[in-house]
Design a protein that fits this description.
single chain, alpha+beta, Dna Ligase, domain 1, D-amino Acid Aminotransferase, Chain A, domain 1, Rossmann fold, 3 domains, six-stranded antiparallel beta sheet, 18 strands, 33% helix, elongated, binds guanosine-5'-diphosphate, binds manganese (II) ion
């Protein structure tokens, strides 16, 4: 789960990583200007990088200018994301911009610490020889020699080295304890007064560790109510703008179904991936969820490898009975116990066919919205 900058900075502050003084605003006149010293930076809170270049970072010298710019920003879209919140911060007097990041390098089974004296730009554009890179042994953590090497590589002064070393250690503690996949400060700013402050913050928490962090619950504020419900049930569910609801097992098969659908002129409305389950309860939940998304027709594409087609069919039948679903359902069902499955489905009034093309064409005909 990716955190918004303002949330990530709250976590940074808990670990004593210095961040600018700031307020979060949802409406321009919420900002009174008393909380901060001018000039200020107005930062759109969106979950995409490169906001600066996309117009998502503005400066203001006084209250009027700040409110004007906050208002414009709150009514704008940055790289396809609607801006709902703005972070207003005291503007830093930047002398140098540094990059610090820690990510999980799966191929090395270890966290990787990255640093560069050329911060403020995308790390991918920094030449390899200007990068400081070091894998961290999880049992040892950040050892002093690593920090000395980092300071030397980035040509930091003694004072800067001291402050940045403290921040890097804190960042590693955060990465470790918060179960992060990625934590990044870009830029870590050295001000003209010699202070070191995290001007930006990126933090991604490993979804599979979220159960250990109830404090992050409810932060997925961009999900629709149905997407939230799906998440609670462990079902991959994405709302698209078409009218045909697609349910398949496995992301690959779901994508292939959507492709086939658009090839024949149909439009996917909801993408629902059952994964490897043939648990009738979960299948039932999925169908009920699909019903509430109100597609014109439900297209089911099931391949039974380990998954048993008949138990999937039982879930579908149960859902249709309990949910009193009168949306037409077309099923292409193939694999283990397919004959049994087709019988169950046909008895429930569902069109059950053998090929994906047949199913797709039938769904388009029945949907017709
Ligand atoms: P990003 O574009 O989404 O990565 O947003 P950042 O928060 O990293 O800001 C982009 C750039 O805006 C930074 O690299 C800085 O050059 C500039 N910037 C952001 N905050 C400040 C600030 O407080 N003072 C100054 N002078 N520049 C800033
Ligand atoms: Mn940045």
């Amino acid at each position: 789960m990716k955190l918004y900058e303002y949330k990530a900075k709250e976590v940074f502050a808990k670990y004593n990583i210095p961040v600018p003084k700031s307020v979060v605003v949802l409406e321009a006149d919420e900002f009174k200007g008393e909380e901060l010293d001018f000039p200020v930076v107005i930062k759109s809170q969106v979950l995409v990088g490169g906001r600066g270049k996309a117009g998502g970072i503005k400066f203001a010298d006084d209250l009027n200018e700040a409110r004007e710019r906050i208002d414009v920003m709150l009514n704008s879209t940055i790289k396809g994301c609607k801006v709902k919140k703005v972070l207003v911060e005291e503007k830093l007097d930047i002398e140098k911009e540094i990059y610090i990041g820690i990510t999980l390098d799966r191929s090395a089974s270890a966290p990787l610490l990255l640093a560069s004296a050329e911060g403020g730009v995308e790390i991918e554009t920094v030449p390899e020889e200007k990068l400081f890179k070091k894998h961290i042994t999880p049992f040892l953590g950040i050892q002093p020699f690593i920090l000395r090497n980092l300071s030397a590589k980035l040509r930091l002064s003694k004072e800067e080295g001291k402050k940045i070393s403290k921040i890097v250690s804190a960042l590693y503690a955060l990465f470790d304890r918060e179960d992060a996949e990625l934590v990044e400060i870009n830029p870590l700013v050295i001000t003209s007064q010699g202070e070191v402050i995290a001007a930006d913050a990126k933090l991604i928490i490993d979804n599979d560790a979220l159960f250990r962090h109830p404090e992050y619950e409810g932060l997925d504020e961009d999900l629709t109510p149905l997407e939230k419900r799906a998440k609670q049930k462990g079902i991959a569910f994405i709302q698209l703008d078409g009218d045909i609801g697609v349910i398949a097992n496995g992301a690959g098969l779901t994508m292939a179904t959507l492709d086939n659908l658009s090839f024949h002129g149909g439009k996917g409305g909801v993408f629902l991936d059952l994964g490897g389950t043939d648990d009738p309860e979960k299948v039932k939940e999925a169908i009920l969820l699909m019903k509430d998304a109100e597609p014109s027709v439900i297209l089911l594409n099931i391949f039974g490898g380990i998954t048993k087609c008949d138990t999937v069919a039982i879930g579908v039948k149960d859902a249709i009975e309990i949910g009193k679903i009168d949306i037409p359902v077309v099923a292409r069902i193939k694999g283990l116990n397919e004959e049994k499955a087709k019988k169950i489905l046909r008895n429930a009034g569902i069109v059950a066919v053998d090929t994906i093309e047949q199913a797709v064409k039938e769904a388009i005909t029945l949907g017709g919205r």
